[in-house]
């Protein structure tokens, strides 16, 4: 037993070092080839996080590996074709490869499948840390253009509509991630500072919500004649409000900043983003209302109650930064 624990800790440390070093390597790389090498290093580090002794995690890891490898293949082909044509890279192929890695529409079908069966901590890792390099690459190389507008608007709308009525945590987090991917791509119009501001608001809200969940179960559903109650609490409700972009929480600040910058580039995209946000509110409020009606209790009641104060305190620095970025 001790040997297994030591092996698990060793694998975790190795995966963490590999992931962090790959992110730094990609961020400082002067070429697309270097970005691709860093993404491949990052992929192998992620697999060590995803896999444990359960069969479902192995299946999810295999799906994630296959999809990310496909995205990398598209990027490599674009770099090679660009070299033959005397260009740095074929930009349309690169943004498609990065779109696959991000799970942007129409490359979003893998997101829910990968999240199904893995731990909430791994969900946060896949939806947050693994998207740092692709988002920053898109922001640096594709700041503007109709392709970015199309990916952003389609992801926001499809993610919000698909998430309506989601009953499992994996589907809820997955489709919510697709919608937030659209908003994150829109944040690229404002530059890296706006992008990181929005990503930080989303990651903190998502992390707070997932930390209160006991695992990938039903948020609210009736199955087999009995109600499967969700782990509900005031803390989960407040984190959901922040994740959905309700004022005055961090998620609201991020969306306001993004909208102000998008209005300067494409008012049409801003309209689609607003529509997707309103649609998303329906299933955020649906989850909260069903949990309240069912009388569910939190899995971690002590941390849940304390986190309410943390959510409100967290909104203060985001409100201050929002004034500087507008």
UniProtKB/TrEMBL annotation:
Keyword Translocase carried by entry: yes
UniProt keyword Iron, yes or no: no
EC number: 7.1.1.2
Descriptive protein name: NADH-ubiquinone oxidoreductase chain 2
Organism: Mizuhopecten yessoensis
Protein family membership: Belongs to the complex I subunit 2 family.
Location(s), subcellular: Mitochondrion inner membrane
Annotated catalysed reactions: a ubiquinone + NADH + 5 H(+)(in) = a ubiquinol + NAD(+) + 4 H(+)(out)
Molecular function as annotated in GO: NADH dehydrogenase (ubiquinone) activity
Topological relation to the membrane, as annotated: Multi-pass membrane protein
Pfam families: Proton_antipo_M
Broadest EC class assigned to this enzyme: translocase
Span of domain NADH:quinone oxidoreductase/Mrp antiporter transmembrane: 93-276
